[in-house]
Amino acid sequence: MIRNNKLITLFLFFLIFACSSVPKNTADGCSIFSERYLWYKYVKKTEKKWGTPVHLQLAFIKMESDFDWLAKPQRYKLFKIIPYKRPSSSFGYSQAVKGTWRQYKQETGNQFALRSRFKDSVDFIGWYTHKTEKILKISKHDTFRQYIAYHEGWGAYKSYKKNQKVILLANKVKKQSNKYKKQLAKCKKSLTTRKYIIF
């Protein structure tokens, strides 16, 4: 009995690790979904629910965490060597901060959402970009400006032109989003005909 419990625990550990590990090629949308077939289901659900394109969702996550479910901002260092506090509470795939994540859960009713879970993270991005469109009148197809609003926040968006760093980041996200769009167009048929397990 004890041996069986250990085997079950070990199996669950490897299952969780396999589902949470970073895909081998995070720059290729087709490669990502060939490894994580359920992820395609989640991004398509987000696209249908919020109207946020799949390639934008992937580009945001690529920039924010590079698909690392446990990603956090690097700590500040005192005297360049002593680890100190982190610059923000950003965490998980989407790098959502605690306050905005709390708002997301309250407004969507998704009270058990986790920042370390992919399906919740892409739903969060869908919710955020939807609100950005309503608040700032930025189309969900405008990856450049949507990312600036995502990075800076709705209140600080209006002054982004003074921030060359965020403009550079937004251009990178736009470029990556376009790459994902082209890649996914090539493997779309195989993705849409795949039989997914329902969870």
Provide an overview of this structure.
By secondary structure, the protein is an all-alpha fold. The chain has one domain: Lysozyme. Helix content is 60%, strand content 2%. The protein contains eight helices and two strands, in the order ααααββαααα. Helix 3 (37-50) packs parallel to helix 6 (118-136), helix 4 (54-64) crosses helix 8 (164-192) and helix 7 (143-152) packs across helix 8 (164-192).
Write a short abstract of this structure:
60% of the residues lie in helices and 2% in strands. It is mostly helical.
Count helical runs: 8
Q: What structural class should be given to the helix and strand makeup?
A: mainly alpha
SSE arrangement, N to C:
HHHHEEHHHH
CATH architecture: Orthogonal Bundle
Q: Which word captures the global form?
A: globular
Strand order of the largest sheet: 1-2
Helical content (DSSP H or I, runs of 4+): 55-70%
Largest sheet: 2 strands, antiparallel
Rg for CA atoms: 18 Å
Number of strands: 2
What is the total domain count? 1
CATH C-level name: Mainly Alpha
CATH fold-type name: Lysozyme
Overall average residue pLDDT: 86
- Beta-strand content bin: under 5%
What is the first-to-last residue Cα distance?
A: 29 Å
List the uncertain runs. 7-18, 75-79
